[in-house]
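dude i think i finally got it to work??
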Amino acid sequence: MSSNVASPVSSGAASSSARGAGKPISFASELQTMMYALGDVRRPLYETAVLVDDIVHTQVINMLQQAAEVSQLRGARVISAEDLMFLLLKDKRKLRRLLKYMNFKDLKSKVMKGIEEEDTTEEKFSSNVSKRQKLAQDFLSSIDQTGEFLSLLVEEEVDEVKQERLERAERQTRMMDSAQYAEYCESRQQSFYKKASKFRDWLDCSSMEIKPNAAAMEILAYLAYETVAQLVDLALLVKQDMAAKAGDPFSQAISASVIQYQNTLEPHLQGHSATVKMNPESPENTPPSTPNTPASGSQHQSKTSHSGSIGNGGVGQDSSSKTKQRKRKKSAAAYGIEVQSDAIQPSHIREAIRRYSHKIGPLSPFTSAYRRNGMTFLAC
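look at this
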């Protein structure tokens, strides 16, 4: 859609307080699992998941409000699937994805009900099982005068976005063992619809005058997941653009915050050599001793202490073992920071929203859909 909604990035506190006076409902933990399945690291940042939760909540709430307006205009008492499909008419690719999803749900219902082969005649299948597909076909035929929307039900076109997500998932699972792959497959099954009651409370449907029915809630859960998927897609592109490339003259155009963040990681990522240089006991940081003429007794004492430090169980060996322990701790901390730096940061999400909402063109500030502090819909 071309309509804009208030950006939760700039007004996160207001949208969070609007969820209720009590403890706010959050999908942050579930979103971490979804983000991992969509291309993020194995343990996504909780701060990023909270931001994604705020954005998706704001988008779905505004989408629900617009669907309620459409439902009210046609004189209906509930928000149905037709109202949400009407919001997707301006983007045929996303409408085609929704229609494929509804067809898949029909096929899944057929399998779950255990229909036997002798009973799966075409008439019985179309009347009992393909309820969603029949609903979509009836709605599109009632408003389609040229046949462009009805053709989406039969056309088989490769979805480039879905194909790219599948390729990314394939690359992500190449080096996994059986336990990691089982965890990844379980994370791919996470969705909003599996927690329908929590999802309904998250949207605060009980306070609405026109409430969504079960079919509308199913589509809203799908659109919420698609919003998360698109956020991850855009954030990964932003993360790739922000990564400094050797020999790239445009890498100096990276924002100062990213450069500062990378500079803070450099001492930790250098590993063993950086640890030795920062050790105050290393020879590089020790100034040379002043030449003098010590007495014979002091020479004998220094030789004795030197020979004692070289022996087994001496002071030198203890200090070297402590130095090695410090090196191991610093290298482990550096590995943890490096893994954490691979995750999608909140800054990546904010930059993705800024780029997606930015309108290009000389007349874009004068269009009715343009808002400088707004954010366009991601799912429709």
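Residues 214-242 form the longest helix (29 residues).
im so relieved honestly
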